[in-house]
Structures are given as C-alpha cells and as structure tokens.
Amino acid sequence: MASGATTRPKLADFIALTKPRITLMVLITAAGGMCLAPPHVSAVTLVMMLVGTALIVSGANALNMYLERDIDRKMDRTRKRPLPSGRMSAKTALWFGVTISVLSVPILAIGVNAVTALLGVLANVSYVLGYTPLKQRSHVALFVGAVPGAIPPLMGWTAATAHCDPGGLALFAVLFFWQIPHFLAIALFRKEDYARAGLFVMPNVLGVGATKQSIISHTGALIASTLLIFPLGIAGRAYLITAFVLGCVFLGWASYGLRERAGNRWARSLFFYSIAYLVLLFVALAADARV
C-alpha cells in the first residue's frame, strides 16, 4: 500500500486520529479531579481546562498514530485507521498532531494556570517520545505509558488548586495502577497480534504466568490507592465501602486467572470488568465527595 493518502481525508478521519473514546475518558477523569479538589472554580476555568486537555491529549494520540503508522498496518484492530488504510497522508497527520498540541499550551497556561499546562506538556511529550517508541523495544513501555495516562485527574486537581498535593497525587496513583491490569489483560488476549506487529508486551517477553502475577500485584496496589482517598478526606465512608467491595471483586477475578484453564476468555472478561470498575469507582467518588 502506498504511504501517501489516496483520497482527501474527511472530518471523520481527523476525529479518528484523536482516539475519541480515549480522549473522552481522559476528559471525564480530568473533570473529576477538578470537581474533587477543595476550591470551587469558575465555569470559564472548567471549560478552558477541558478544551486545553482535549487538545493536548488529541494531539498526543494523533502523533502516536503518525509514529506507529507502519506498525498499525500489521495489526487487525488498527489496520483500518486513517494512515495505514491510505485515507490520510503521514504529513497531514503530523501537522495536525503538532498544531493542536501546541495550541493547547497557551489555553492551559493562560486560561487555567502554569502548573496544569506543565502537566499537560509532560503527558503529551512522555506519551509521544517516551511510551510510543519504547513499545518497540521493551515491555517496560507499559509502565512509562501509565504516567501520562494518570496525569489528567491531577491536571483537573491542579486546575482548581494550582499545585500538586496528596489529594491530587492519590488520584494520579489510582489511574496509574488501574492501567496496569487493564492493559495487561489486553496484552494477554491480543499477544499474537502484538507479536506480529513487533511490539513488546509482557506475555510475549516474560510469559503468561508472570503477566498474571503482575496483574494481581498491581490490582492490590490499585486497591490500596483507592482506599487512601478516604483518610485524605476526599470522600466518605460510603465511597470507602464501595471501593473496598469493587476492589475485592477485581482482585478475586484477577486471582482466578491463575487457574490453568483461565485463557483468553478470562482475560477479556477482566478487561471489561476493569472498565466497569473504573466507572463505578468514580461514580461512588463523585457521589460521596467531601468538597
């Protein structure tokens, strides 16, 4: 297939570059971080934070697709994206990603504050220049990529407080540790796809057994970080009980994976539960927030 676009890209192709579902989840966690922070902020600040965050995350996703366009051609779930399918040229995607990434910085710096802008730049750069190329060299890329993935709720928190403190860092920890079992579950049921694309993931490097052990240990760390929110005064007892119950189910289902017959079907179910878990956790957090 030719490297250039065979047709003029449509609006839907530019939207696809931003990975809209991921961007939407990022915006929800960022808004959650702002709403949970002690000071109340104006509607203007909220809008500026969401717009700036959407642009800087979308820019990172577009640049990720630009850098991985050849890899995406080799994977079943990505070969229909705008670049590998030939619907958009690499140059167009590059300029689109750079433009909206750069545009986001003054929006965050002027419309919100410098701390939030710096966190946004850190998330963008670490995702594009850290996580993306490292995926082709080491399975450790997962842990590097979990950093920018966990920054959005901290951005929301700093948008209200203008500084990092234990409350914001606790939200960062929740998102950081949640991503590990979530993405390791994907790596388990898509390990052949990743191997064909030449990407390093834990099941193909350390084995399935080590991957399942890592899922369990990081799920334990996730539970601990969610419970830490209670003594920090961010949420009350109802949240604490909900977080504990959801975490026990998560850990129990992760531990079930140690059984020999637990294969791709179990990994898929754990992946879908991890999504439901995060949604229910944030609903409980919002319902019982102490702000």
From TrEMBL:
| TM ranges | 21-41, 47-67, 88-109, 115-134, 141-162, 168-189, 210-232, 238-258, 270-287
Q: Where in or outside the cell is it found?
A: Cell membrane; Membrane
Its top-level enzyme class, in one word, is transferase
Q: What keywords were assigned to this record? A: Cell membrane, Heme biosynthesis, Membrane, Transferase, Transmembrane, Transmembrane helix
Spell out the molecular function terms from Gene Ontology. Answer: protoheme IX farnesyltransferase activity
Going by the entry's taxonomy, the superkingdom of the source organism is recorded as: Bacteria
Q: Matching InterPro entries, A to Z?
A: Protohaem_IX_farnesylTrfase, UbiA_prenyltransferase, UbiA_prenylTrfase_CS, UbiA_sf
What the entry lists under Pfam families is as follows: UbiA
- Chief location category: membrane
Question: What reaction(s) does this enzyme catalyze?
Answer: heme b + (2E,6E)-farnesyl diphosphate + H2O = Fe(II)-heme o + diphosphate
As for membrane topology, the entry says: Multi-pass membrane protein
PROSITE patterns with a match to the protein in the record: UBIA
Question: What EC number(s) has UniProt assigned to this enzyme?
Answer: 2.5.1.141
Name its pathway. Porphyrin-containing compound metabolism; heme O biosynthesis; heme O from protoheme: step 1/1
- Record-linked CDD domains: PT_UbiA_Cox10
Protein role:
Converts heme B (protoheme IX) to heme O by substitution of the vinyl group on carbon 2 of heme B porphyrin ring with a hydroxyethyl farnesyl side group.
Further information in the entry reads: Carbon 2 of the heme B porphyrin ring is defined according to the Fischer nomenclature.
The UniProt entry's sequence similarity note says: Belongs to the UbiA prenyltransferase family. Protoheme IX farnesyltransferase subfamily.
Q: What is this protein called?
A: Protoheme IX farnesyltransferase
Annotated source species: Pendulispora albinea
